[in-house]
Write a structure and sequence with these properties.
The chain is of the alpha/beta class. The protein has helices at 2-9, 13-23, 29-37, 49-52, 59-68, 72-80, 83-92, 96-102, 117-134, 146-156, 161-165, 182-194, 209-221, 262-269, 288-297, 316-319, 326-336, 401-413, 471-478, 501-504, 514-537, and strands at 170-175, 199-206, 229-231, 247-250, 308-314, 340-345, 358-364, 375-380, 386-392, 395-398, 420-424, 429-436, 448-449, 452-453, 461-466, 487-488, 494-497. It contains 21 helices and 17 strands. The longest helix is centred in the C-terminal third of the chain and has 24 residues, at 514-537.
């Protein structure tokens, strides 16, 4: 990262040094030096990586002088890396000069003319992937491949003709778990490839100091406003409270506890919909739905143009939790407010650090009046991938450009086919009813209280009645023929929602005929018998 800064500033280095001599005692020097460097950062030290090589005996002092010459925004980034201690270690091991020298070779040339911003993003991601693997990071701490981000961005911008064809349009995008900023970067690059006149302003928050520093440095390198990238825990310390955005994109950690944030989250939940978590709280063992609710809370009001969200989850948020539980209540809020546009099942083995099933949730608050109103599209893209020639960690598959285009078109067309199904919001809802049976004494007579039979807890049962069905008719058809004395305790009825994605795309495959299986077994036995004879004959 430091070498990248060094290469970027090399073209204006001498101009900055001259300007520094002129303005070093002025209160507005920061603005003037940024103008001289032509970037949002600068370095006033006389040293560059190449000039450091001229004095090996004083490499530590000179390198520290070089680092101290950076503008304050870069100094803040270096602090997050705790780089000072690393320098001391490298000096003690006698390798500081050797390492810096490697970066002055042709292989270490990170000038933008040689290495693009996109390529630098790949370099960052590869280093981070290797680091996370060597430290046995869990499945929730993974990094999003570029093709997955590309698909998410395609869908985010799919219907927005104003930003795709308008002039000098400015939009905002937010990632509550921005990591190294890959999603924000790809979104900006893609939008500019479609319409160079549109500006996409990136906002993000990241808890990890080093990945935050990488993201912020990436924003600086590209000339963006790095002040919109915040460091901190999104769940317990929302740095963008009260802000809303045109687009929200994220791949938050899943399968990770939020017990450290529990007190703050529960305190905010008491505010109801005055905070982010009014719909409900998921189990403390998995905080991914807290990020989902954070994203929803950042949506612009429809009068301001509304918002669209693309967020990645594993399978858990689809169905975990019974009626009345936190996860079910969150799904209920999303579906009853008609916020869910689509869920896309991604292929397995496309992430570096996990091979588990993942899904893109697409949400929008501007469905009213469109064909999507009151509907949810499920897209099973599980088989749309190409095998990699060489695996990268757990990443054995890629989503090709062709497949990205196909998935995007299926989403945009909003029609049913072999891998696309469309449902009413209510199709995912059910009423959980409690079925009681009478408590009897030894003679088999019901025990009454106030002339009403008392329930036998040991015979209590539940039924999930689809929302589209009449509860009375369902009860008479499915329960009473088998338990004529049963009744419903209506006070205990609860409405729940779940999205059993795989069930909708399940295809029955008839078992092979027994005769065919037997013939295969006999053939295998014959082959095995011949092999054993050869062994014993020898």
């Amino acid at each position: 990262m430091i070498r990248r800064f060094d290469c970027i500033l090399s073209d204006t280095k001498d101009a900055v040094l001259r300007k520094y001599d002129e303005v070093k005692n002025l209160p507005m020097k920061d603005v003037l030096l940024r103008k001289a460097s032509k970037f949002d950062f600068y370095n006033t030290s006389k040293y560059t990586f190449e000039r450091l090589m001229d004095d090996p005996d004083h490499i530590e002092d000179n390198f520290r002088d070089y680092l101290n010459g950076f503008s304050e925004n870069v100094q803040n980034i270096l602090e997050k890396f705790k780089f000072d201690g690393h320098i001391t270690t490298m000096v003690n091991k006698g390798i500081l000069y050797i390492v810096l020298k490697e970066y002055t070779t042709d292989r270490g040339n990170l000038h933008p003319d040689e290495i693009s911003n996109l390529e630098m993003g790949y370099i960052f991601e590869e280093i981070i992937r290797r680091f996370s693997e060597s430290h046995n990071e869990d499945a929730g701490q993974h990094y999003t491949p570029r093709e997955v981000i590309q698909l998410m961005v395609n869908i985010l911008f799919n219907d927005d003709n104003d930003i795709l064809s308008g002039n000098n349009v400015a939009k905002t995008i937010y990632d509550p778990a921005c990591g190294t900023g890959g999603m924000l970067s790809v979104a900006e690059e893609y939008l500019h490839s479609l319409n160079a006149s549109t500006e996409l302003v990136s906002f993000g928050q990241e808890i990890n100091d080093q990945t935050f520093a990488i993201c912020k440095s990436d924003m600086l390198i590209k000339g963006n406003n790095a002040d919109y990238i915040k460091n901190g825990n999104t769940l317990s310390d929302d740095q963008f409270a009260g802000n809303t955005f045109d687009y929200i994109i994220s791949n938050p950690p899943f399968g990770r506890e939020w017990k450290n944030e529990k007190a703050k989250v529960e305190e905010e939940a008491k505010l109801g919909f005055g905070g982010r978590f009014g719909a409900g709280l998921p189990a403390a063992s998995d905080g991914q739905m807290l990020f989902l609710m954070t994203a929803i809370s950042k949506m612009k009001d429809i009068k301001q143009g509304g918002s669209r969200i693309a967020i990645i989850h594993n399978g858990s948020p689809l169905f975990t939790g019974d009626a009345g539980s936190g996860p079910s209540e969150i799904r209920k809020y999303i579906l009853e407010n008609d916020l869910l546009e689509a869920i896309i099942a991604l292929p397995n083995d496309i992430f570096y650090n996990t091979g588990i099933a993942t899904y893109i949730w697409v949400l929008s608050n501007k469905k009213a009046g469109t064909v999507r109103e009151g509907k949810v599209q499920l897209i099973n893209a599980n088989e749309l991938y190409v095998k990699r020639r060489k695996a990268l960690g757990n990443k054995r598959n890629d989503i090709s450009e062709k497949d990205i285009a196909k998935i995007t078109q299926i989403y945009g067309d909003f029609v049913e086919n072999e891998i696309s199904q469309i449902y009413d919001n209510a199709d995912f809802g059910y009423t959980k009813i409690v079925v009681e049976r009478p408590l009897c004494d030894e003679e088999g007579n019901p025990i009454l209280k106030n002339k009403k039979p008392q329930p036998d807890a040991s015979l209590r049962d539940t039924e999930n009645v689809p929302l589209k069905e009449d509860i009375k008719e369902y009860f008479e058809r499915e329960v009473l023929p088998f338990a004529p004395d049963a009744w419903i305790d209506e006070k205990k009825s609860k409405v729940g929602y779940e999205i059993p994605f795989t069930r909708y795309f399940y295809k029955y495959e008839a078992p092979r005929p027994s005769a065919e299986i037997m013939a295969e077994i006999m053939e295998l036995e014959t082959e095995l018998s011949g092999s054993l004879e050869e062994v014993f004959d020898l």
